[in-house]
Write a structure and sequence with these properties.
The chain is mainly alpha-helical. It has a single domain (about 5-15, about 30-85, about 95-200), classed as Fido-like domain (Fic-like fold, Orthogonal Bundle), CATH 1.10.3290.10. Helices cover about 55% and strands about 5% of the residues. The protein has eight helices and two strands. The protein has a two-stranded antiparallel sheet with strand order 1-2.
Length: about 200
């Protein structure tokens, strides 16, 4: 029996979540960059090369945010080439699996276009910034566009969405938890957590 298409499940959950309940974020003076500190700390201790690649991708994501570059698969693919040190990072060619096969993300002729459509919504001013960042993170996780490194790219995407509005979280470690496609409460909680981390800078 074919496993449930968790990407389709996520797209339903995405419409169900009340994103308007997300907290309002505050722009704060420059200080600790949580993503950079995470790379230079725990990631570097586990794997210095992985940390170096992530920092290079992070620099690109921040530069793209400063330029207000449109967020789409092509932009993410550029970051992913740094993450994986790979010359090419095409959109996946078949179904993807995660969580030891418990989640399957289907592929149709429209999957990449639908992904780009979701990413375009990160500039929607009617949705709170924390919700847009959380939703983009989960979009990357559940569209699962790459054959490897999707969790890292999801976090880079969240950082990029916030940086476009001059918001930098002082820590990102608490964001490193397992997320499930069929969990609307968990999706809303991610937006709430972004608000909690934002307030910690104050």
């Amino acid at each position: 029996m074919t496993a449930t298409d968790s990407l389709s499940v996520w797209l339903g959950v995405r419409r169900e979540v009340d994103w308007q309940c997300a907290p309002v974020l505050q722009r704060v003076p420059a200080g600790r960059d949580g993503f950079q500190a995470w790379c230079e700390g725990p990631v570097h201790r586990r794997d210095p090369i992985r940390a170096e690649r992530l920092l290079a991708a992070h620099a690109l994501a921040r530069e793209d945010a400063a330029r207000r570059s449109p967020l789409n698969f092509a932009l993410l693919a550029g970051w992913q080439r740094e993450v994986l040190a790979a010359p090419g990072t095409p959109f996946r060619m078949g179904d993807a699996y995660a969580k030891a096969g418990r989640e399957r993300y289907g592929l149709t002729p429209r999957t990449q276009a639908d992904f780009d459509g979701c990413l375009r919504e990160t500039t929607d001013p009617d949705i709170p910034l924390a919700a847009r960042a959380a939703r983009a993170y989960l979009d990357v996780a559940f569209f699962h566009p790459f054959t490897d490194g999707n969790a890292r790219t999801a976090l880079l995407t969240l950082v990029h969405v916030l940086a476009r509005q001059d918001v930098v979280l002082p820590e990102v470690g608490p964001l490193q938890t397992t997320r499930y496609a069929d969990d609307p409460a968990g999706a809303a909680d991610l937006a709430t957590l972004i608000g909690v981390l934002n307030r910690r800078r104050h």
